[in-house]
Write a structure and sequence with these properties.
The complex is a heterotrimer of chains A (about 120), B (about 130) and C (about 100).
Chain A (H helix, E strand, L loop, with lengths): L4 E6 L8 H14 L3 E6 L21 H10 L4 E5 H6 L12 E3 L1 H10 L2 E4 L1
Helix pairs in contact in A: 1-2
Chain B lengths: L1 E6 L8 H14 L3 E7 L20 H11 L3 E5 H6 L5 H6 L11 E4 L2 H9 L2 E5 L1
Parallel strand pairs in B: 1-2, 1-5, 2-3, 3-4
Chain C lengths: L2 E5 L7 H6 L7 E4 L21 E5 H6 L10 E4 L1 H10 L2 E5 L1
Parallel strand pairs in C: 1-2, 1-5, 2-3, 3-4
The chains are: A alpha/beta (about 120), B alpha/beta (about 130), C alpha/beta (about 100).
Chain lengths: ~120, ~130, ~100
């Protein structure tokens, strides 16, 4: 199968809407079909990464479990926009899964070199 | 050029679905090919055959049905998004012992692989929300 | 590879700033739906470099009473031109 570089941008907080889940599911599907997947957390999307979440209290599935599957599906490029972290006073130590933190120039380059960018 | 469209909003609650439809019409009128329309999340409600609207408003699912049929455009409603919103084809309706069928005839229910395939096969993927 | 960015929500969302973090020289930005509220006053697009062409969907401007009053930097386009723009640029990134 032809391979393209697909970048998924997840920009929504985890539980108030289903957008976060939609982006994860789409990213995982792309990984299953052996595409080159970049998964970028940006804006409120970085709230998905915060440690110590337990969504049982709101009868929802804790997002961290879904995020751990990114690695299981072989997605190596799990990326975070540094500006979004700084704006929310978060740092690498606050995050639940290993990620690569991208500076402004790296974020711009990522978008520029992707064949397709899906930003729900 | 070969396009695919990703539609993720409901016709009843935001303008994005209508924008997608208007874009699709403009693209086919210019002779472009639409490889696939993928309805995702609330977007699957664009494929709700049971939607009824007041007489002076456009019934977007019906409009999509006509456009998709007339131009032989493939369209897919994401299975997980569709089932949870009650968008069922005859097969899913029977499987879940439901009373009726609600999916447009022009649309199929399928998985996210069809979105990935559309991204790969098309020269442009255009998202509407 | 240059992108056309479509922004479909009003300036209150702050999404233009998010979008600009991905915008490269030569990219274009097209305002659609409530995104056309970026078209006036002109200061709303001050942060966009002159390297980036700005467009707004005519149908959405017309609907919102904005067609006669938009920043000089922004070019109104119809759906036909919208389709052409998606061909002219190498990819399309939606912000909503």
């Amino acid at each position: 199968m032809q391979q393209k570089s697909l970048t998924f941008i997840t920009r929504q907080a985890p539980y108030g809407s289903n957008k976060a889940k939609l982006v994860i599911d789409a990213g995982l599907a792309a990984a299953v079909f052996e595409q080159q997947v970049n998964f970028l957390f940006m804006d409120d999307g970085v709230f998905q990464l915060v440690q110590n979440q337990n969504a049982e209290s709101i009868s929802s599935k804790t997002i961290g479990r879904a995020l751990e599957t990114l690695d299981l599906y072989g997605i190596e490029q799990v990326l975070v926009d540094s500006v979004s972290l700084e704006e929310r006073d978060l740092s690498a130590e606050d995050l639940a899964i290993p990620v690569k933190i991208l500076n402004a120039e790296q974020v711009r380059q990522l978008a520029a070199r992707s064949d397709v960018v899906i930003n729900l | 050029m070969k396009f695919s469209l990703l539609v993720s909003t409901s016709p009843a609650s935001s303008q994005g679905a209508m924008t997608a439809y208007q874009f699709a019409r403009a693209a086919v009128s210019q002779g472009h090919e639409i490889y696939r329309v993928f309805f995702y999340g609330d977007g699957v409600l664009n494929a709700n055959a049971l939607s009824t609207v007041p007489q002076d408003e456009i019934n977007l699912p019906r409009a999509w049905d006509e456009l998709l049929t007339n131009h032989n455009i493939e369209s897919v409603a994401c299975v997980s998004s569709a089932l949870v919103r009650g968008i069922l084809d005859p097969e899913e309706s029977a499987r879940h012992k439901m009373a009726g069928v609600s999916l447009l005839e022009s649309t199929q229910i399928a998985g996210l692989g069809q979105l990935v395939d559309a991204s790969i096969q098309s020269e442009r993927l255009i998202s509407f929300a | 590879m240059n992108a056309l960015h479509t922004i479909s929500v009003s300036p209150t969302s702050g999404l233009l700033n998010s979008c600009l973090r991905l915008v490269c020289p030569g990219d274009g930005i097209l305002f659609i739906q409530d995104g056309v509220y970026h078209c006036w006053p002109p200061c709303l697009v001050d942060g966009v470099s002159q390297d980036n062409a700005l467009f707004a969907l005519r149908e959405d401007l017309l609907a919102r009473g904005l067609l006669g009053k938009i920043s000089k930097r922004i070019t109104p386009v119809g759906f036909g031109r919208f389709v052409e723009l998606t061909v002219d640029y190498d990819k399309v990134i939606n912000w909503s």
